[in-house]
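1st attempt posting a full record on here, be nice pls
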Amino acid sequence: MTPIFFIGALALVGFFYWAAFQSARALKSKAIQITGNLLLSVPEFIFKLVTLGLCFGLANTLSVDRVENYINWPSRQPLVDLVIGVAVGLVTAFVINFLSIIAIRIWGKDIYSPDIMKSLIPRNQVEWILIILPLLLAVAVEEMLFRGLLIGGFSTIVNPWALVLAGGVLFGLMHSPQGNLGIVLTGAVGILFGAVFIITNSLLTVIVAHFALNFLQIVRAKEDIAWYERFQEAPRYRPDPEPRLEEEEQV
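the predicted structure (as tokens):
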């Protein structure tokens, strides 16, 4: 491992954590108000594209034979990895949804903040198509950084299973804008994806699983928007009303 890789990877993780901390504080204090769909932000898309490039650049500074054996990219059996990734994503989405409902019923709504999730809900059919690429890019960045670099790259000097636990904690903390429940659940997901990354020897598998999980979460948020709106006194986002709903309101 080279000093460039060591410093660069930790610097990226530190930056993401700092950004998450600042976002959580701003949302809690109501200092910022989210408008539009975050996934369709052009500056955000460019930033993540550049970050993904930096991650692959750092991977090439590992100074080891066959870097692909450490970051597990590219896939050796893409079709198999795709199927496994979809299955893992579907099961994880179901479990996360179930645990979220139970936890909120037990500890109350204050353990979760829906602001970020609500800002990702497409407003029309066109946005459902437009968010696919940005969402895929977002999960690719997170998986490349937290699984490819932190687990695969640092496994040259640290036990990979210890890195799975450490990476899961960092992954959870990065989602602090979603509240304590978001930190705990995403931390658990981070540990799960880390284990899948090691067992399958595939970065593609966890990218697909992560994408499937996030996409299904957005679908659920869209279908159950009233559940999310109950978390705020003044909802910041409401999809365009459908004619049927307008008629019901008039009645």
